[in-house]
Amino acid sequence: EAGVTQFPSHSVIEKGQTVTLRCDPISGHDNLYWYRRVMGKEIKFLLHFVKESKQDESGMPNNRFLAERTGGTYSTLKVQPAELEDSGVYFCASSQDLGNEQFFGPGTRLTVL
Amino acid sequence: AQKVTQAQTEISVVEKEDVTLDCVYETRDTTYYLFWYKQPPSGELVFLIRRNSFDEQNEISGRYSWNFQKSTSSFNFTITASQVVDSAVYFCALSTTGNQFYFGTGTSLTVIP
User: Fold this and answer.
1) What is the tens place of the pLDDT at every residue in B1-38?
2) Distance separating alpha carbons of residues B78 and B60, to the nearest angstrom
3) Interface touch B47/A40, C-beta < 8 Å
4) Does the CA dihedral A95-B106-B95-A54 come out positive or negative?
5) Which of A60, A55, A89 is nearest to A72 (CA)?
6) What is the distance in angstroms between the Cα of B41 and the nearest Cα belonging to chain A?
7) Using CA atoms, how far apart are residues B110 and B58, in angstroms rounded to an integer?
């Protein structure tokens, strides 16, 4: 069974540009999560989808971040326009049920110059 | 508020030594879940263990063992007879609603051959 996949693995963009990250969860997992780790700090929750609905987006830093999960399958996270402080590793995770372990993807390392 | 503290930022041990990674958590919820994840150099987060707040039994899995103590709000992780392949960043995480995870800042373990 394929795990959680994320694309791209690395992205380097300039301040003010737009970047879109993609996550493909494990097939059949209704719950999809986005997290972010800024250098040296803890991994922080961004938002949670249940199927195509946003269940909790309390961790989204500001309105420059837009997450979608059309059709309840893969998800995208768009940053527009990107700022320097958006640099970090963005992780996606999925789970079958709440309370169970979340399976994480390898992350997308975003560098904003 | 939920919080996880991993006070040890970096640990180095010589191969075959035992090592304990500390994790202290804070929550006012009576139902919660605790997790440990391993992040090898390849970057993905690998699930190691899940514990719910009603199960204080310690667990052993091969060279890995976990000590859950509600009295001290700790969920420590011990690796016995460490090996070079154990070198990684280890994250402790807390979940209360079963929704978002609260992570510690991670402990980077280096096992020296």
Assistant:
1) 899 999 999 999 999 999 999 999 999 999 999 999 99
2) 9
3) no
4) negative
5) A55
6) 10
7) 25
Cα nearest neighbour of B5 on chain A: A42
Contact A69, A75 (CB under 8 A): yes
Nearest to B75 by CA among B96, B97, B52, B98: B52
Residue B98 — very low, low, confident or very high, per pLDDT cuts 50/70/90?
low
Query: Measured in Å, how far apart are chain B's first and last C-alpha atoms?
Result: 41
Provide the shortest C-alpha distance from residue A83 to chain B (in Å).
23
Cβ contacts of A40 on chain B, cutoff 8 Å:
105
- Beta strand A31-37 with B10-14 is unpaired
Interval A65-83 mean pLDDT: 95
Q: Do A20 and A78 meet the contact criterion of CB atoms below 8 Å apart?
A: yes
Which residue in A40, A48, A99 is closest to B33 by CB distance? A99
Give the gap in angstroms from C-alpha B101 to the nearest C-alpha of chain A: 7
Per-range mean pLDDT, top range of A94-103, B72-81, B93-102: B72-81
